[in-house]
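Contributing new records

If you add data, match the layout below exactly. Sequence lines come first and carry their own label; structure lines follow with theirs. Keep one chain per record. Anything else will be rejected by the validation script.
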Amino acid sequence: MWIVRRFQTTSRISTYQDGFSLVEIVVSIGLVAIGVLGFAMNTVGVMQGNYISRTATIAFNLAQDKMEQIEALATDSPVCPSAKIPLCTDSEGLIDFQGMSGQPGSIFDRAWVITPDAPEPGLTTVEVTLTWTAYLVPRQFTVSTILYTP
């Protein structure tokens, strides 16, 4: 005996929508793009901050090196190469990250002022100032000390 089954194909309209619509995909891509752009801008800010911090540290070290050099030469009273010049500078011009002048990448301008008998007789005030430009903003760093010069 043969059993014949009849298959009925009914066309039913699905109440479910499978997948995402194009609008949902575009909105989600836009939100992801805004998030990635925010992270990228934050990364640029962090990199600029690191560069400024690094140059400030190098400026401090270059100022400290000049200060120690002046202190080492201060047997009597340290003076500039010419007593008529109140502000001493590196004679070769700008200096680089290693303190070498006349090299490519020289961005620091170093100057120092030596004031004998200030604040009292027998004391000498020394101020070393480094100036440079980072991201179009002029920056300055000053280190000062007082030396005993008998």
